[in-house]
Amino acid sequence: MTLPPFQLLVDAHWHDVARLAAALAPPGEAQDVSQQAWTQAYAAYPRLRGADNLRSWLLTITHRAAMDAHRARARRPDPVTELPEPALAPATSAAADVSASAESDPALWAAVAALPVRQREAVALRYVCDLDHATVAAVLTTTPGATRRLVSDGLATLRRALAPTSTDLAPSTAHSPAHSPDSPADSPADSPAEDRS
Amino acid sequence: MTDLTARLRSTLPAAVVPPTFPTPEIGYAVHDTSVGRLLLARRGDDGPVIASLYLHEAATGQGAADGHDTEETALTRIARTTGPRILRRAAAFDKVRRELDSYLAGARHDFTVPLELSLATAYQRVVLQTLGRRVPYGARASYGELAAWTDRPKAARAVGTALGANPLCILLPCHRVVGASGALTGYAGGLAAKQALLALESRAS
């Protein structure tokens, strides 16, 4: 078993690593996080045993780098964190964004950034990176059942956040304790606070 | 909102840029020349050149391309010897490219870049080093002569195999070795490339 030349990994996966970093990193730190992930991967690469799943290896490193960045940010009192996110344009400005290609979707990614962290990790790993539930569970060191629930809660939150008029969704708060571990996967009513009138 | 997961899969959260790296163990670049496409590799950004290999040129289909490496197979071959920390490094090859281009334009007869035969076996190394010492620009030798110079006069065929495995094409001039009759036999870059190199060197005098 020989490991492929590192450049082939970069060519095949840098886009996915950048996407995951952008979905998970603190605001404005996505590029640092993906660069950090690549630096760590390059350092560890020759000692890696087995070339079976290099992509999920890279994405695991990227996930860890993003979480490290959040922890580092939490440790240092930084007034910048109080500012609104500069990297993510508001929902209405897609047309004005000069870097916007057909592939840009600022409203969606602003909503992803606003997800609770575990939901955001699960949704990003499952759909941004297209990993199956077993792999997502391994990255998050939890069970596939738990990741399914996180993904489904995350998608529900995103659907509400992206709904055309949020007032339509106002509140049957009666069913809301959806974040308890026993809650059904597709609980319709785990409204985040900002949706309540 | 049925397309939510599709949007997550296909859209970009922000502009993304490829990563950058400090000096790698092995850097490489692809260089298109008048005799074919070469993959050049060296240690670090200014260490010795360890590979100059003809690559398959899908665009032109020139020569007997069937045996040629692709970028991926060539890198994989190099990685087996050097380890897998190999990165594209276009800027590290400016001088090598200039010397190759200048040689192919007839303006230069030798190369100043340091070479290393780490991709060759012990016997290939002996043959290729002897070639470098004994067969100067514009000269030709036969496989048998080279075999005799390496003290194995009956090893013409082994010499041919060793030259065929030359990891430093053009930089170590295996194209100057021809059959005893003067016939051009095989060449990693194809016979047309060998012909062109010999014609180039015989024009200058």
How do the strands and helices of this protein lay out in sequence?
The complex is a heterodimer of chains A (197) and B (205).
Chain A: H1 6-24, H2 30-44, H3 54-75, H4 106-113, H5 117-128, H6 133-139, H7 144-162
Helix pairs in contact in A: 1-2, 1-3, 1-5, 2-3, 4-7, 5-7, 6-7
Chain B: H1 4-10, E1 26-33, E2 36-43, E3 49-55, H2 71-82, E4 86-88, H3 94-104, H4 122-134, E5 141-142, H5 143-149, H6 156-164, E6 177-178, H7 191-203
Parallel strand pairs in B: 1-4, 5-6
Antiparallel strand pairs in B: 1-2, 2-3
Structural account:
The complex is a heterodimer of chains A (197) and B (205). Chain A is 52% helix and 0% strand. Chain A contains seven helices and no strands. In chain A, 34% of the residues are buried. Chain B has 205 residues and is of the alpha/beta class. A four-stranded mixed sheet of chain B has the order 3-2-1-4. Chain B has a two-stranded parallel ribbon with strand order 5-6. The longest helix of chain B has 13 residues, at 122-134. Chain B has two domains: 26-104, no CATH class; 122-203, Winged helix-like DNA-binding domain superfamily/Winged helix DNA-binding domain (Arc Repressor Mutant, subunit A, Orthogonal Bundle), CATH 1.10.10. Chains A and B meet through α1, α2, α4, α5 and α7 of A and α1, α2 and β4 of B.
Give a summary of the structure in a few sentences.
With 197 residues, chain A is an all-alpha fold. Helix content of chain A is 52%, strand content 0%. Chain A folds into 2 domains: 1-87, RNA polymerase sigma factor, region 2, helix turn helix motif (Rna Polymerase Sigma Factor, Chain: A); 89-197, Orthogonal Bundle (Arc Repressor Mutant, subunit A), CATH 1.10.10.
